[in-house]
Design goal:
Its main location: secreted. It is found in: Secreted. One of its GO terms (cellular component) is extracellular space. The chain is α+β, with helices and mostly antiparallel strands. Helix content is about 25%, strand content about 30%. It has nine helices and 18 strands. The strands form four sheets. Strands 3, 8, 9, 10, 11, 12, 16, 17 and 18 form a nine-stranded mixed beta sheet that branches. It binds 2-acetamido-2-deoxy-beta-D-glucopyranose (NAG). The site of 2-acetamido-2-deoxy-beta-D-glucopyranose (NAG) has 3 residues, from helix 7. 2-acetamido-2-deoxy-beta-D-glucopyranose (NAG) binds next to helix 7.
């Protein structure tokens, strides 16, 4: 099991006031420089003993693997993924797999580390939790099969029961099939993901399709009057102007990770979710060091260790989309055999194999949020501690469900203008 050693160095210290006036009632005291130390993650964390959280950690670790692979394939462009929707399609496919292929998929999804015998039942619970209406997350996955395929009757009921998925059999007419896919996607995401014009390849045997949309609602909304064009440093030499939201007195959770040389901040979203930002101290498009440390356990630790502070915050407005395939990416995650000669004998008697993994994602945040911040009352003449947190250079963001710990979306923002 991945063991993570986290060292947080608190480079900030609050100026303590002798005044008894409560200016920041929600803030926990930060440990001073002397309190710096290493925390070894306990594998027996009670959080991971809850079956749905344990499963969420497993599929999220697959998600970080998928992201790392995708990011290494795209060193100079943004990356946007909803790994959970990809994991869902794979997990669903494993219901149609014989033992050899089932093990292959289960290893990729880290199910081999789970003792829970009812993975698929727990997955249903996870899906119900993360797609609850207050989460604003639309996520859909699907198994698409070659035309005229005869499906074994035993395959469909468990698929529908745990994943709400009905396998789709292609007609073989590219125009009709594309239209049907677009219609399905529109229905599943309530029209939030635009229609694709990318035709499906002709030689499909098994295609996995996954899509997700998310529009963030901050717990504390940004004041749109404070949004303005500001610098974003693409790299050491190039700077662009982009719309940046700002909050001069944001309350956020923060930590400086000296090993990763990055500033981590967490902002809460409505629906028990949060956005975690990883911002390198120096401008760079090489985020490898941070990426390599991303695991469910590490993120869980961060969630516990960050300290509440007040900061001058600037965040670029973001609207990112992805419409493409992650076939080659998935292959690299020890899943090549699914594309060669897998055992999918619980789906059909015919020899079929995975040919394509499609992914669509749309992700957005702007000023929108639930309410105004409860402001600490500023007293004139008092020294106000303030830290700057400006997302004005390439960064990574992680959208996490606080209830289960599930990774819902993940992105590398090298250029906030998109795509
Ligand atoms: C990116 O950073 C990593 C770790 O710091 C380093 O090993 C790697 O060589 C860098 N890659 C590039 C392309 O500079």
């Amino acid at each position: 099991m991945m063991k993570t050693l986290v060292t947080f160095l608190w480079a900030v210290a609050f100026v303590s006031y002798s005044s008894s006036q409560n200016t920041a009632g929600t803030e926990e005291p930060l440990p001073g420089p002397d309190a710096t130390g290493a925390t070894v993650v306990e594998e027996e964390d009670p959080f991971f003993k809850v079956p749905v959280n344990k499963l969420a950690a497993a599929v999220s670790n697959f998600g970080y693997d998928l992201y790392r692979q995708k990011s290494s394939e795209s060193p100079t462009t943004n990356v946007l993924l909803s790994p959970l929707s990809v994991a869902t399609a794979l997990s669903a496919l494993s219901l149609g797999a014989g033992q050899r292929t089932e093990s292959t998929i289960h290893r990729a999804l880290y199910y081999d580390l789970i003792t829970n015998p009812d993975i698929h039942g727990t997955y249903k619970e996870l899906l119900a939790s993360v797609t609850a209406s207050q989460k604003n997350l639309k996520s859909a996955s699907r198994i698409v099969l070659e035309k005229k395929l005869r499906i074994k009757s035993g395959f469909v009921p468990p698929l529908e029961k745990s994943y709400g998925i009905r396998p789709r059999i292609l007609t073989g007419n590219p125009r009709i099939d594309l239209q049907e896919m677009n219609n399905w996607l529109q229905a599943q995401t309530k029209g939030k993901i635009s229609r694709s014009s990318r035709e499906l390849p002709k030689d499909i045997s098994v295609l996995l399709f996954s899509a997700a949309h998310f529009k963030g609602q901050w717990v504390t909304k940004f004041d749109s009057r404070k949004t303005s064009l500001q610098d974003f440093h693409l790299d050491e030499d190039r700077t662009i102007r982009v719309p940046m939201m700002s909050d001069p007195k944001a309350i956020l959770r923060y930590g400086l990770d000296s090993d990763l040389n990055c500033k981590i901040a967490q902002l809460p979203l409505t629906g028990s979710m949060s956005m975690i930002f990883f911002l390198p101290v120096k401008v760079t498009q090489n985020l490898t060091l941070i990426e390599e440390s991303l695991t469910s356990e590490f993120i869980h630790d961060i969630d516990r260790e960050l300290k509440t502070i007040q900061a001058v915050l600037t965040v670029p407005k973001i609207k990112l989309t992805y419409d493409g395939e992650v076939t080659e990416t998935v292959k690299q995650l020890k899943l090549q055999s699914l594309f060669d000669s897998p055992d999918l004998s619980k789906i059909t008697g015919k020899a079929i194999k995975l040919t394509q993994v499609e992914h669509r994602a749309a992700f957005e945040w702007n000023e929108d949020g639930a309410g105004e911040a409860p402001r600490p009352s500023a007293q004139p003449g008092r020294l106000a501690f303030s830290l700057d947190y400006h997302l004005d250079k390439p960064f990574i963001f992680v959208l996490r469900d606080t209830d289960t710990g599930a990774l819902l979306f993940l992105g590398k923002v090298l250029d906030p203008r998109g795509p």
